[in-house]
Design a protein that fits this description.
By secondary structure, the protein is of the alpha+beta class. The chain folds into two domains: 1-197, 3-Layer(aba) Sandwich (Rossmann fold); 240-379, no CATH class. The chain is built from nine helices and 17 strands.
Length: 384
């Protein structure tokens, strides 16, 4: 682990809060502000976490859960420069965490990709030299001038200054592709979404946030499939945890209405103890959503030739408070109290994406396990 060879750095950032939270792209409209102290202490380590997934696969919701469990009481976009109402950033900050969207390392803007004829998933369209150099600098305790990819107009905008924080999360299409970047990661997570579920989620996001038609979303997915299989999906083999979202096996409704979610954990990850439970499948004493049944499963499997512990949840709860019953089945959750896991889910509320099914459960559980992993690395506790 590389030490942060830096004297005390301090940054006071002014951030604006969106009513829906971080969504990858954040446009500064709100003038409501708060102060975030993201200073590294003298000699403090910088831990780098990588999260890989295709576009529209729920990374943004996961980032909110993850930053808050690390003590991110103040969560918002990197501040500054929004007086004109048009400044863009993809960077999320909290008291101890910085989340960097790797779209900012596109080698070309949208117009440039039309000339090259390549999609953003193609590794030739990524500036891995700059990505590797800047992640290395952050891990060494140095600030960087990170480029900004503007998702609205497809341009590469003026770089922004990003300071190192104790936890740096890089999320996007290619966090594990380049070996220089991969070697800098302390922990890696892959969000694996089946094609049917991915289509439903992208329809919801791109039509609502980007003004696309259903036909445009479908065309985009079909165009991206070959490059996704070639350049993004292979990163699963380098992941410490995979969160896999599949169609429900208990639902009586059409695909996408209910989910089966699996948390696949490598057994050989140093400083990480797998969450687990009683072997086999359990039907907990909970009330399920209409037209589905809730089941929780525990077992082991080979995943890319690695021994893994696997937990699954199928179906959707009718009452978010029933996560308390599911939490009773789980072992080694890294919760600091008997109900911290369910309390975190209940605190977020039933209206948050995936909050009543395995998506919210395993994103929150993974966040708790990462906090425990971080504590193991630094030899100190993080307040709940």
């Amino acid at each position: 682990m590389l030490q942060a060879l830096v004297t005390l750095l301090s940054l006071t950032a002014t951030v604006a809060f969106s009513p829906v939270g971080y969504t990858g792209l954040t446009r500064m409209h709100s003038r409501t502000t708060t102060t975030v102290d993201m200073a590294l202490k003298d000699g403090e380590k910088v831990i780098v976490i990588g999260v890989a997934a295709d576009s529209g696969c729920g990374k943004s919701t996961f980032m909110r859960r993850l930053t808050k469990v690390f003590g991110g009481a103040n969560v918002g976009p990197l501040g500054g420069g929004f007086d004109k109402g048009s400044w863009e950033t993809n960077t999320l900050v909290s008291d101890r965490t910085t989340v960097i969207c790797l779209d900012d390392y596109h080698a070309n803007d949208r117009a440039g990709r039309k000339v090259s004829g390549l999609t953003a998933l193609n590794v030739k369209e990524q500036n891995f030299d700059l990505m590797a150099a800047q992640i290395k600098d952050l891990k060494s305790g140095k600030s960087i001038a990170k480029p900004i990819y503007n998702h609205v107009n497809g341009t590469l905008d003026t770089p922004e200054t990003v300071e190192p924080t104790p936890i740096v999360i890089i999320e996007g299409l290619h966090p594990f592709v380049d070996p220089r970047v991969r070697d800098l990661l302390d922990f890696s997570i892959y969000l694996d979404i089946s094609d049917d579920i991915k289509f439903a989620w992208k329809i919801q996001r791109d039509m609502a946030e980007r003004g696309w038609t259903r036909e445009q979303v479908l065309e985009s997915i079909e165009q991206r499939k070959p490059d996704f299989s070639a350049y993004v999906e292979p990163q699963m083999k380098d992941s410490d945890v995979v969160l896999s979202v599949l169609p429900s096996e208990t639902s009586k409704l059409e695909v996408g209405k209910h989910l089966k979610v699996k948390m696949i954990q490598r057994k050989d990850k140093k400083n990480y103890k797998c969450a687990s439970g009683p072997a086999g499948q359990v039907s907990p004493a909970v009330k399920s959503d209409a037209d589905c049944e809730v089941t929780v499963g525990f077992g082991t499997e080979k995943f890319y030739d690695k021994d893994c512990d696997v937990i699954s949840m199928d179906g959707k709860l009718a009452d978010i408070n029933d996560f308390k019953e599911i939490e009773k089945l789980l072992k080694d959750t890294a919760a600091k109290s008997e109900t911290e896991l369910s309390d975190e889910l209940i605190k977020v509320g039933a209206g948050s994406p995936g909050s009543l099914d395995g998506t919210g459960l395993f994103q929150t559980l993974t966040s708790l396990k990462l906090r425990e992993y971080y504590e193991n690395l630094i030899g100190a506790k993080v307040a709940a």
